[in-house]
Design goal:
Elements: E1 16-19, E2 23-27, E3 34-40, E4 46-47, E5 79-80, E6 102-106, E7 110-116, E8 123-132, E9 138-147, E10 151-153, E11 155-157, E12 160-161, E13 170-176, E14 179-182, E15 199-201, E16 205-207, E17 213-215, E18 224-230, E19 233-241, E20 246-252, E21 259-266, E22 279-286, E23 307-309, E24 314-325
Antiparallel strand pairs: 1-2, 2-3, 3-4, 5-11, 6-7, 7-8, 8-9, 9-24, 10-23, 11-22, 12-22, 13-19, 14-15, 14-18, 16-17, 18-21, 19-20, 20-24, 21-22
Length: 330
Amino acid sequence: MPDIPPHPSTPRDGWTPLKTAHCSAAVSPLGAILHDLTFTLPDGRKFAPLAEAEWSGRARPEDSPDLSPHLAELGGEWPCVPFGTSPADPQHHGFCSNAVWRLDAADGGSARLSIDYPAGHDIAQVARSVRLSPDSPSVTFGLEITAASDCCLPLGLHPIFRLPEGGAGVTLDWTGGQQATTLPKALAPPTLTPVPGAQVTKGGPVACLDGTEFRFPAEFPRQREALVQIWDCEGEVALRYAGEAAGVRLTWAAEDLPHCLLWLANPGGEIPGLGQFTGLGVEPVSSLFDRGIAPFDDSVADRAAGVALRAGEIWRTQYEISAFPLSPSV
């Protein structure tokens, strides 16, 4: 079985390297983004499941002032507080996705970072921990949010997984959540290809505006960009890379983040000054797509979203990304 090469991105100065016998990664101060996650499987092969933009670690946010700063390091995994675009924060995916965090502690295999929000924001502080397991190919994350005022906000996590050329040989599965919806027409940009606002059944076809269709989620067709929200997940999603005989699993607390937003970019639209990005965002959320918590369309009118936070109290959640080998027959 050939080795699975890690992504060849070059961490910029200031990223914090993490390493154990089973995992390696680096944490960026910008957004506290976890980059270059590479697992060592039980048979010794290396497996890097997260996508990384070819410009990540080299582009400078200050060179593209009209773009959200996190796009300069697009890829990896990070928390969004609040998630998406909402009245609660002027920045897409929130202040913490687009600003520099403090490194509070690091010991080689783990790190803790935090960020204080501007005065007047509903959030006072966000902190997160990243712990690479010394015993298995897995990473455990902790997220703590301290509210400055009583509020209800859309929250989410933003891991982006790698798609091989054309998306061939990758399968996606999850627990619960048999129903999903494509992005409603009121929000769909021209780069999105599915018919807007369509109800999709797990394993069923997704109709596209050009008259074609693809099976969801067994196919990731080339030249497609899509946002599909899975409702009422049970907190586990797995991707299997048959050509690499390896898989990756994301688990989280479904009582905290009940839905999952899938962002398919194969590749996505052109990001001005940077290029196109290919990856699959698998994003646990308590949000209506990436547009907050207020219903904006009949297709989401009966969906619950948002996390209630109380001033001075800390809201906590944990989640994990782990890798596993596949038998050659899978």
